[in-house]
Amino acid sequence: MGSPGISTTQGPTGLPQPLRWQAMLAVALSVLLSVLDYAVANVALPTIARDMQATSSQSIWVINAYQLASLAALLPLASIGARIGFARMCRIGIMLFMVASALCALSHTLLELTLARALQGFGGACIMSVNIALIRFIYPHEQIGRGIALNGLVIGSGVALGPTIGSIVLSVATWPWIFWINIPLALAALGLAWSALPQTPRSTVAVDVAGIVATLAAFVFTVLGLDDIVHGHADSGGVMFVVGIIAWALLLRRQRGRANPIVPVDLLRDPEFAVAFFVGMVAFIASNFFIISMPFTLETLMHRSPSVTGFLIAPWAVGVAVMSYTIGKVADRLPAGVLSTVGIGVTALGFLLLRLLPPDASNVDIVWRTALAGCGFGAFQPPNNRMMMILAPRGREGGASGLLSVARLGGQTLGALLVAGVFAIHADLAPERCLALATLSGLVACLLSGSRLVVGRRRQAGVTR
Question: Mind telling me which InterPro entries this protein's record contains (predicted)?
Answer without folding.
Answer: MFS, MFS_dom, MFS_trans_sf
